[in-house]
Amino acid sequence: MTAPRTAGPPDDRGRAVIGRVALALAAAGLAAFLLWPQAFAPLLRPLTQNGAPPIYTQTSLLALTLWHLALVAAAVAASATLAVGLGILVTRPGWRDFLPLARTVTSVGQTFPPVAVLALAVPLMGFGSGPTLLALFLYGLLPIFENTLAGLTNLPPAVAEAARGMGMTPAQRLVQVELPLALPVILAGVRLSAVIALSTATIGSTVAARTLGEVIIAGLLSSNTAFVVQGGVVVGVLALLIHAGFVWLERRLSA
Amino acid sequence: MIEATRPTTGTRLPLSRPGVLFALVGLVGLALPLVQFRANRIVAGEGAGLPAALGATGWAVAAALAAALMAGVAARMTPGLRLLIALAGTLASVAVLGAAAGALTPPGDGIARVSPAAGFWLLALAFALAAADALARIDLAPWQRWALLLGAVAAVALILRSGLLDDVSVMREYHARRDVFAREAARHLMLAFGSLGAALALGLPLGIAVHQVPRLRAGVLGALNIVQTIPSLALFGIMIPLFGWVAATVPGAAAAGVAGIGAFPALVALFLYSLLPVVSNMVVGLSAVPAAVRDAAAGLGMTRAQVLAQVMIPLTLPVLLAAVRIVLVQNIGLAVIAGLIGGGGFGSFVFQGLNQTAMDLVLLGALPTIALALLSGIALDLLVAQLDGRRGRGA
Amino acid sequence: MIRIEHLTKRYGTRAVVEDVSLTVERGQIAALVGTSGSGKTTLLRMINRLVQPTAGRVLIDGTDTATLPPHLLRRRIGYAIQGHGLFPHRTVAQNIATVPRLLGWDADRIRARVDELLALFQLPPAEFRDRLPHQLSGGQQQRVGVSRALAARPELLLMDEPFGALDPVIRASAQADLRRIQRDLGTTLVIVTHDIDEAMALGDRIGVMDRGLLLQYAAPGAILTAPATPFVARLIGTDQRPFHLLSLTRVADIATPGMAGGAPVPADATLRDALALCLWSGRDALPVEGGGVVTLDALRRAARPDGRPDDGPPDGGAAG
Q1: Which residues contact C62 (CB under 8 A, 6 or more apart)?
Q2: Has residue B9 got a pLDDT over 50?
Q3: Neighbour subunits, B (≥3 Cβ pairs < 8 A)
Q4: Would residue A26 count as lying in a domain?
Q5: At C77, is the secondary structure helix, strand, or coil?
Q6: Residue A137 within any structural domain of the chain
Q7: SS3 of A70, please?
Q8: Contacts of residue A167 in chain C, CB cutoff 8 Å?
Q9: DSSP 3-state assignment of B107?
Q10: pLDDT digits (tens, 9 = 90+) for C23-71
Q11: Which domain-ending residue is among B162, B196, B213?
Q12: pTM of the entire structure?
């Protein structure tokens, strides 16, 4: 490209490089910890008391991390599919009757505390991963739906007019113009959902879902701060990495 | 012009499509068991519909509710009338729940539990959605919205005090632990509002500082961002040993209220989560003040401090209120986690209930939390809208 | 040839366009001019049926447009609007290729057509093909927008304030470019503008609209010399009339045999340019390149409503 996007002052660029290096280090550290947790035992031992184990060994941390991620991925994928579908639906001419309702439900729904949604899912699904999946799915719908609406309704009027004026059918306009232009905004919604889900999934362990929350809860029950810290840090680093990955993708798509 | 040229499909039939959706949800609700009856708190229950609970009256009430639902299907109805029907329907659903619980509970039986089942929830959902849809289509003045909100709060308070719902399981749980409930409610409010207050007290000056000294920006906001990524469970958990250690080693800390147990660690965790929205919105708000306004103020001879205090900060008010809304709603929800680490609040009911598989107890914690979050969210939205409206008229 | 017959658009009881009839000959430019809210844009949008007419019909080369599915009709008609409406996520080449792709042209033909158009609009293809719209200047975006409208060789091009967002200097050269390309391609063009100068500069026929009515539809000379209503006269403005009139005629058309001193004036310059040169250099006559002179007296005669050389038969007032 001949006319590059302004890259900002060199100071910012330097900071971006530092940020990228820090992320790479965090990812490497996380991978090392999950593969060889015992190597980190000396680091965590000061947080334990009375000779308690510094590393959680009940279940492999790697397995819990994968479960955790799988749960979040499944929930977010399901939310994204439904939310984008509904967002497309209520912005079509014949279904615009539902638009005011959709906006109200989205804004009201987001005030529902995720923990409460999780607790209320238990009577429906029993204990285990089920209620967590349901709660993550329901809670994840809202940001994605909201952003899909924003992306599809904030199309520049001249662009919408041009697409119609050139003889695109409604389906062609949706696929070739509206969705590609809304994609960065929709992805931002998916990112928000994924980051919220990642954190909320830890609470799922209070209803016996297999997530990294298990490690934290074990730490809370046995007053072992090392467990609390390792569970928290793993989830935190995952959130940072996922956040950064989505931001990178959004930037590329909107460039 | 584009709006007006859109083909008006969808109005070909004299049907309101949202109305059809609400009617379907509500009718499914009527067909499903309204309540669930259990001989005691632990055993599996059996469902009961309206007729099963209330006999012939039940049939009549079911027919009336169905009629109300079907009325909303007609396209030609003013949103005002829709709102009235929807609100009446919501009230009726609640009344019917109370009546069914009363009828199903054997007199003097303190052990039997009647809890709302899928039928009730769907029925209430249908009317609530219809009310929300109608509200979204009415252009109400701010005072009318406030009146509506206060009216709704008053109605809920009246219904709860009237004893109408006393035979419903959640209310039984409530009556069994009235004193504890009052204490935990106060604790929950203290956690949510206390952490908000602390975050405003520290976050606003911090936001101003970050705006005035741009070099601080990346560091402060980056650190606060990282705090946000720590899962709530872990942050709450880390606070316990941390402040336990502080209270034990720093002289005077314990006397000042610092403790590793009770509400203090939860309060600090919520405070930490609150800082990012407050600081970043303050910075965004200050940066959004047009340069022309700033220059004009300086050109009139104001000092830097006067420009900040008399021009910039008043202009950031809407953005700050938005931050307060985010923080308050988020903290009311997150304060539930405090229940898991002995910090009290409605969360203690939720987690006790989950431990004992007593869903009524879970509801006793979850429902007030949701109501509180909704109330705060709506009230602050109204405030923001009112502020924007006033600014718009002034401009 | 495009023929509009009794075209009407009402929203409820409010008529936005009321019983408009006009004809644009093949290869001609019709400029619709009027204040905002006059209905000119709605009239234009009824031609490609972005707005569905309430009554009346539009015939393109004898075919009633109502008989075609709207999206197929629109692929045959070029459409360029103010603010260009380029797709921000597509490159210049992809933007221009939009309609050819919809029509299913093969890739080689599309590539050749894109390069041809870019060259026509003085945008070197190698340099511009792969740029994104936000990497172009305002004038370049506007040229790409017009190229996109012309991509599938439409018989008819509709333009709605296409130069509205451009600054005056770029605007003048964009108008000249359009005029040149339209002559080369022989495209029929309907252009909507609120700027009477632009209408005068471009239009073979000018349609003046007000409150949904077509007040007058005629050649520029006739609009100037015989405005059909006081509104048309007001729109032109009394102070500019003689200059508009002069700008419609070329120097070569009134040159008479003779000699004069000083720098010559090009034969294809307008009388307005010649007058300016006379006044500026203080001369009573100018030599014309290629022979002959143009005198201040002749210019003064030409600036009067009854003194014009033959401008072709006037088209009469608003039809219908």
Answers
A1: C1
A2: no
A3: A, C
A4: no
A5: strand
A6: yes
A7: helix
A8: 70-77, 99, 102
A9: coil
A10: 999 999 999 999 888 999 999 999 999 899 999 999 998 899 999 998 8
A11: B162
A12: 0.81
